[in-house]
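My current task is to audit a protein record that another person submitted. What it holds is a sequence and that sequence's fold in token form. Thanks in advance; the entry in question is below.
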Amino acid sequence: QDAIFARFETESQALVKADWVFCISREEEWLLRTQGANAYYLPYYPPEAVFQRFLEVRAARHNRRENSRFLIHGNANNPPTCKGMIEQIEWLKKARETLVFEVDIVGYGTEKLKEYCDRADFVVHGSVSSEHLHEFLISAKAALIHQVPTSGALTRIPELLIAGIPVIANRNAARSTSDYTGVYQYDDWIELADFMSRSLENPEIPDRPLTQEKRLIDCLQTFMIS
């Protein structure tokens, strides 16, 4: 624990010396400001090519009659992501006692999660092609996201909302995006099961953070002029 705080102190003091610091999570902006850094929140928003790809998913979902399966999607080779997936699977097992559902688990390294999925309705697909992932996104009733405490913010959430996919996420995962339409936040497996049992509306496309992006552009132009 002492080493963790020492690393944070070293990093924060280095950032305090910067003219500007941009963070993709509100919480990190607040934390760095308490240390004296000139920090600003810059929400993630996908570049145009990625944006258009998720719009295609949204259009395809609009033409689909029924979405019934839930989707867990992430890179399980990332240790915090893997821990979150394992914990979510355990919570889903408890939810399964009162709710009938099927869930697809997709992404790099997710093959290692098979040992935790001892039910036929928990299907681990592992790494899949972009085309195959496209089909999972189209057919998902909602995306299930669960994160253990860690830094940063999940760029997947805005992308999923653009794709028209409701997001059911725990408080750790939903931070910085909990006020977005289409994000349903839970604190325990009971709330998780409750959201999974509901009929969830298609989320609105999040607004592009034009003001925050302009602030970054203005800062970069200042450097170029000087």
